[in-house]
Design goal:
Structural class: alpha/beta
Mean pLDDT: 85
Helix content: 40-55%
Largest sheet: 4 strands, parallel
Number of helices: 16
Oligomer: single chain
Shape: globular
Distance between the termini: 29 Å
Strand content: 5-15%
Length: about 450
């Protein structure tokens, strides 16, 4: 997975702020002296725990996403929820391990101090991160359709937080020029390396429409040996968008690029993560599951089923029965067979509207995870009818079955609910990225960001 260095730095700074906030709270609480830090049994451990939990809950709110588009109000709301969630988690940890307890006064002050210090830091951070000073200076080789796709796919300011396009260098094999002439750079007799040094270029992106005979390999090798990064367009989109664009994806790139790693240890770690995550989520959510079952029974009567079983396509294309809380009326598809869910679907019950919005209807799938049919994180499993259709219309769709399907996934936290072929194409680009780059760290990140999806009802139908 590609991590933004500025946002890693932000997380580190906010960790330090939260740790410092504990000591500032002690200083304020006990008559402006740090000698009374002895009232805390484990000051270093307690302050470190405070510093870790708060950034993690803010990450769960999506506040370390470089493409976050929530605006000032969105950042404020997510920060409030993140700190409130962090306070609840810390209170539970203090109850379990009393030796970590900070004391009510210090704990409350530390939260307030950290919140306002983080609130002061973030506007300054985004002011500087949006300046060219902290961006990679990128030179694009190519001026055709593939080069122009950078502007089409990365239109917004937040999409370009990590880089700045210096210009586009036309290649001899460009059939057409799809770039504004003001952005074109004619090197003439000047060497590519000399231009890069003169204009402080950090990276070259090769976006040639025709690769054979059109790429100046000797000059690119010279640039590479000088220490500049040289990447192709697919790798650039993979890093900047967190997905693999299907219209330019090539089998040879998938074969020779990094990723798709498997192994016994990785499989064991993945299974261990699935079981632990499932049990923890089950421990937290069982009251909501009981309430959901009661609500379904009250709305639809004693004879109506609470759960709904549906055949889905799983690992290596094998079918399995997925378990969900029933959110639609009984026999909702008896007339027309399998159908995409739509906004305001008349088949959805009143209880179903709530549990679909909050994703509670998905919670019984924890049993599928514990049984081994699914992972906690992975591409969402589709129904056989739709899989046959999507295999015909979407490139590389069969490859999504190379890993176990999941309750949540990279596509779920990055893209709204998929209920059409067009949506499935977009989600497939994210799913391919996950299949190529999946690690335990990425799974943990997805699990944290799923909280944001649930709390803010992203894409629910």
């Amino acid at each position: 997975m590609h991590l933004r260095v500025p946002f890693l730095l932000l997380a580190l700074l906010e960790f330090c702020i939260c740790v410092a906030a504990v000591y500032v709270a002690v200083y304020v609480r006990f008559d402006r002296t740090l000698t009374d830090v002895v009232h805390i049994r484990s000051p270093i451990l307690s302050s470190t725990l405070f510093g870790l939990v708060m950034p993690i809950t803010m990450m769960a709110m999506g506040l370390y996403q470089s493409r976050f588009r929530g605006g000032v109000l969105g950042v404020f709301l997510r920060s409030v929820i993140g700190f409130a969630g962090g306070a609840v988690i810390l209170a539970l940890l203090y109850y379990i391990v009393p030796s970590l307890y900070l004391g009510r006064g210090v704990f409350g002050l530390a939260i307030l101090i950290a919140f306002f210090m983080v609130g002061t830091l973030r506007p300054l951070f985004f002011h500087y991160v949006d300046r060219d000073l902290m961006k990679l200076r990128v030179l694009v080789l190519g001026s055709g359709d593939k080069a122009a796709s950078i502007g089409r796919r990365l239109r917004r300011k937040v999409d370009r937080r990590g880089f700045r396009i210096v210009g586009y260098v036309p290649l001899a094999t460009d059939v057409t020029t799809a770039i504004d002439s003001a952005k074109l750079i004619e090197l003439g007799d000047q060497r590519l390396l000399d231009y890069c040094i003169e204009h402080d270029v950090d990276e070259i992106v090769v976006a040639a429409d025709e690769r054979r005979g059109g790429i100046p390999l000797e000059q690119l090798l010279e640039v590479k040996l000088h220490g500049l990064d040289v990447i192709d367009l697919l790798s650039f989109f993979e890093r900047e968008q967190g997905k693999l664009p299907l219209e330019i994806l090539r089998p040879d790139w998938l074969i020779y690029s990094d990723g798709f790693e498997r192994g016994a240890m990785r499989d064991v770690m993945k299974r261990l993560f699935d079981v632990v995550a499932s049990l923890l989520i089950l421990l937290v959510t069982w009251p909501f599951m009981v309430a959901c079952a009661i609500a379904i029974r009250l709305e639809d009567g004693k004879g109506a089923p609470i759960f709904y079983k549906q055949t889905r396509v799983g690992y290596l294309g094998k079918p399995f029965e997925v378990l969900k809380f029933r959110s639609m009326s009984v026999n909702a598809e008896s007339a027309g067979g399998a159908q995409w869910a739509t906004t305001g679907d008349s088949r959805v019950t009143r209880t179903g509207e709530v549990i679909r919005k909050t994703r509670i209807d998905e919670l019984p799938q924890i049993l599928n995870v514990l049984r081994g049919d699914m992972s906690f994180v992975g591409p969402r499993p589709e129904r056989p009818h739709f899989v046959e259709q999507l295999n015909e219309e979407i490139p590389y769709y069969r490859e999504r079955h190379a890993v176990k399907p999941g309750i949540t996934g990279w596509a779920q936290v990055c893209y709204p609910y998929g209920a059409s072929i067009k949506d499935s194409v977009q989600k497939q680009e994210f799913d391919l990225y996950y299949i190529k780059n999946h690690t335990i760290f990425l799974d943990m990140l997805i699990l944290c960001q799923t909280a944001e999806v649930v709390l803010f009802g992203k894409g629910a139908r």
